[in-house]
Amino acid sequence: MGSFNRFLLFLFICGLIIPYRVGAQSIANEALEKMPVDLETDFALSSLPPHLRAGATVYLLDPTKGFYLARAGSNGFICFVSRMEWEWADFRNDLATPVSYDAEGARTIFPVYLDMAAMRASGKFTARQVKDSVIDRIKRGVYKAPARTGISYMLAPLMRSYTGMPGQNEIKTISVPHYMFYAPYMTDADIGGMPPGPFMGNTTDEILGERKGPHGYIILTAGQAEKAKILEENKDLLRRLAGYKPYFTIEPGMKHHS
To answer: Alpha-carbon distance 92 to 171, whole Å?
Structure first.
């Protein structure tokens, strides 16, 4: 999601994302901590719009094994909390990004998350080796592009993610609810993309070259009114996250922006 991470960096510099009080900035190369099951479940489900949550499949992370099926759903959507992004070749304990996929994304994109979580959990791979393995599997066609148009909802009230490109391993806790539509091998030039309107996100293109990334997305951020509603409806979740880890805490007096 290269364009998206550049967008996050731009918003942060301009003060247009919600900064949160952060704990240690270099929580890298640490063993992952298991999140409380109820909190991780609700955090994962928050990526979806409310009407899809009851029927969604939920995956949770066992840091010693990888993702496991915690709840089988009925509507084709899956959700989970990503604790690693392979493009950054970085093992951290403080990254947490709720993600959801429809059935097509679950079939073609989620396997990357499954495999990298399992590799990390095994203790047999460095972060760089995880990245190299994913790149190799993309090149060999193990990981394929979605065969049809589909959607990944990322409507959680916050996420803790990288705010720059691979190699810029700074993480911030931010609130940017958004929608992602599958658009493999496309670029901003194809859609006239430019934030805050629809724009392309494909970090893999930054690594493999333009139009080489099978998991590209057209990204559309939620509007101001929708975002305010998301934050209001998730007040209890925000409180619980803040109680769990201080880097999920909103700075007092900060205003919400789109």
So the answer is: 10
